[in-house]
Amino acid sequence: MDWFRELLSRCTAVLRRGRLDDDLEHEVESHIELAIEENMGRGMTRAQARTAALRVFGGVTQVKESYRAQRGVPFVISFGRDLRYAVRRLRSSPAFTTVAIVTLALGIGANTAIFTLVEGFLLRSLPVSDPARLYRIGDRNTCCYYDNFESPDGDFDMFSYELFQRLRQAAPEFEQLAAVQAGGGGYSVQYASAAPRPLRYEFVSGNYFSTLGVGAYLGRPLGESDDHPGAPPVLVLSYAAWETEFGRDPAIVGATVYVQRHPFTVAGVAPPGFFGDRIASIPPDFWMPLSAEIEIEGQNAAVTQKTTAWLYALGRLRPGTEIPVLEGKLSAVVRQWMLQWPAFTAHGGSKTIPRQHVVLARAGGGIQKLQQQSGANLRMLMILSCVVLLIACANIASLLLARSTAQRTDVAVRMALGAARFTIIRQIMTESLLLSVAGGLAGLGVAWFGAHAILTLAYPEAHHMPLKADPSWPVLGFAFLVSLLTGVVFSTAPAWASSHAQPAEALRGTNTASRDRSSLPQRMLVILQLAMSVILLSSTFLLTRSLMNLEHQNFGIETTRRYTFDVDLQGAGYSFDRVPSLYRQVEERLGALPGITNVSFARYIPLGGNQWGTCVSLQGQSEQGPEDKCFSDWDRVSAQFLDSLSVPIVRGRGFTARDNDSSLPVAVVNQAFVRKFFPGQDPIGKHFGREGAKYSSTYEIVGVFADFVLTDPRAEPRSLFLLPSTQRFTGYREPESDAAEKSSMFLNSVILKVVGSSPDVEMPVRKALAEIDPSLPIFRFVSYDSVVAGNFNQERLIARLTSAFGFLSLILASVGLYGVMSYIVARRTSEIGIRMAIGASRALIVRMVVRGALVQLCLGLALGVPASLFMGRLMTSLLFHVRGSDPRALAGAAAVLGVCAAVAALVPALRAASLDPVRALRTE
Amino acid sequence: MPDSKSDVLQGTLDLMILKTLESMGALHGYGIARRIEQVSSDTLSLNQGTIYPALLRLEQRKWIKAEWGTSDTGRRAKFYSLTRIGRKQIAAEEENWSRIVETMARFLSPSN
Lengths: 924, 112
Fold this sequence. Notes:
The complex is a heterodimer.
Chain A lengths: L1 H14 L1 H25 L4 H12 L2 H12 L2 H19 L1 H30 L10 E4 L23 H10 L3 E8 L4 E6 L5 E8 L3 H5 L5 E2 L14 E4 L1 H7 L10 E4 L2 E8 L16 E4 L2 H6 L13 E7 L5 H16 L3 H4 L14 E3 L6 H38 L1 H9 L4 H38 L14 H27 L3 H6 L11 H32 L10 E6 L11 H13 L4 E7 L10 E3 L1 E2 L12 E7 L3 H4 L4 E4 L13 E5 H7 L9 E3 L9 E7 L14 E5 L10 H9 L5 E6 L7 H11 L5 E6 H6 L3 H35 L1 H9 L4 H34 L11 H27 L3 H6 L2
Parallel strand pairs in A: 4-9, 6-8, 16-21, 18-20
Antiparallel strand pairs in A: 1-10, 1-11, 2-10, 3-4, 3-7, 5-8, 6-9, 7-8, 12-22, 12-23, 13-22, 14-16, 15-19, 17-20, 18-21, 19-20
Chain B lengths: L2 H22 L2 E2 H11 L11 H10 L3 E7 L5 E7 L1 H25 L4
Antiparallel strand pairs in B: 1-3, 2-3
Helix pairs in contact in B: 1-2, 1-3, 1-4
């Protein structure tokens, strides 16, 4: 008990230090006064009495000191003292402190930023209840509509509504199984008197919210009763959309909004933080039941097509379900179902049905679409940022080593005066810890800023993106731990070394050397830094080269002085038969504006990120089986389209105004189409069709145009045919084919070609369009170059970040090398003096110093080149038209590093050579 | 620092202070120091200041308590007095001390 009372009192005393010190002061004073009084009573003078009193009292300072030692907690007191001492010492060398903190901040900040994104992307679960039990039937990312087998190896991951219902019945292992749309897009939504706005939608099955275990913030979520044909159409808004698009208007729940001009009732608002079933840069703004698709799309609705796959299946498994058994069972259901549909069985399809199967994948992190796209990039960035951290650590270590060497005399003096070894080590460690904590805090700032910048740059069009760039607690803990470890690990060795200095030797001033080994650890650190810089620099070269190859490849289209924007024709209430006249009107009106030389419409613009494909049947050929390679991209465009992007016609003709409903249906095809379907033949006059062999004579090929890239800038141009905007094929007997043909008549993208530099085309264009139809919404008015650049946001970001890392490592390694060379020169001053005194020329001295640096550079390269080759192998999938082992990257890295190393070594070398031998010899 | 010497002295000093306060009642630091000198008839050479850390230690253990007051001569001083815990502790400390004296005596006796 006594010790406990004592400790308690000591602890509280730490807090009341100031007052207690005063108290002691007064008590001692009163003691002395009482003694003086008594002594004077014995007849002494006041001076004598005072002297005597002080003598009997003993040393006042010593008493106070031991009193304080008894009073406080020694550890806390000494820590506080060490801390104050460390702050004082760091402030006395601001250059060292700044370099160390900045180095740490960059190293730790880069890592924390990347780790924050990795956590957000790859490790976080959906904000739903019990995400661990969520599984998805399917592990690929097939999108968005499919009418056939989905992959050559038979992996099936997207289902038609009919097949989804089969799976749901067959798998009671799922407590609930929901369907979500694989794709999704924008619909125009109008509420009250406000102008219609484009919002992102997703069709989901009625049990979507209950499967995920998500309720509603306002109103109610979607329910099973909302999802059957004829049910009153309802939708649920996301919290983010409710907040930003509808100003948190509570009255919207229960109110009617118009989606593509169809009335819907807002059933509710989803809870804050719920962003849907996957991490996307633009998550859905609202969810509608599958049955509502009929309301909007009518006969073209995918939900009514028996075999059109467009849904992912996502469900909550009962505990204890055997995954492989369920996979086998569901695969059997899929195969069984396929057998009844000619789409799968006809023309040799039956042969491939036995291969068809499904794979169950964990879906607690959501449908892993964005993760699969960005994951490889993130992983590479993580490796690179770790390399940066290593370089930063090496720099810190060599800074601390150099500092401990410089302070050797100082430490020796303190030890000679009686400082304990433990005290010295404790003080040096405190200083390092202080540095690393300061560096860590600054690093968090860097991380916060960095993560936000990366997200903004990587997803410039992101809107309500569910990914937070603010570091979470685990990430903060990770960063804190990293910074503490850096401090402790890299200060232990220098602390130990300097505390073992021989005071006598250090004081004697043997601070000179010729070929001593004391700089060995520093030299090794520099070699390590140089090696890692090679990795970063060669990665920089590779990725920058790859980005340049991507951006400056020949896309086959001319994009400068082109602008593009989107219109929403269906949202504005146009029907398919009214659009051709609108196209003509718009083309005439905009074409008459000054500066605009060409106006065209397209369903999908090249490099705009979207495409449409179909199976082509050639006239006179038997029905295509699934094994046949009949697939071709296609697009519907107006007559001016090829001209507006300067795509040359290589044979035949382009579309003209005469290609209309009353003339024969025509098509133009690209060279890849000719190579694929008519190798070695003249395609002009040949016929082909869509929707099966019976339509194989639909279109006559009237022209061939040069290949251009439609979507994937990394791949060779694929076969593509174009159909005219003015001609609709009316011969389809199946209602869904006819509906699809009608819906393909809506061309929502406009391309403008301007002369010279017309900076302000947007205002006149908007004005002219408003004159034609004020209710026609216009989106995304941008230059075509920025559309193209948008394809490479991630690549650009990766290349820029890697360049930043590479630049950083170059500076750190150069500073490191410079530091070591300066240190060696300083240590060898008297040796150099002797050499010069006995006749060494200045050139010889320079050569001697530079040779030392070159040896380190070569060793660094020897380590770095194989490591870079390995890194290049890891990056292969990210590179475009450049090999991971490109010798130019290695040579470039070596050259840049060599130049920096030469400068870093030359400065101290010249300093050495300019020494005055006499003074050098006198140097202690 | 000569820790080893003061350690033995500390225990001794603690008991001296406790006994002084037991016989004299509340007393200030100077009074305690003078009393110890008088009782030991100046055979003990004591730096008066050393009683303060000892007083603090006893206070931390709640054996004694301190209060600012006025001396006979009208000077402000801190007065120390025994607490209930302290009174009880005296017996234990006395016994402890007697045991040490007994042991020491056995070492010092000529028969050893």
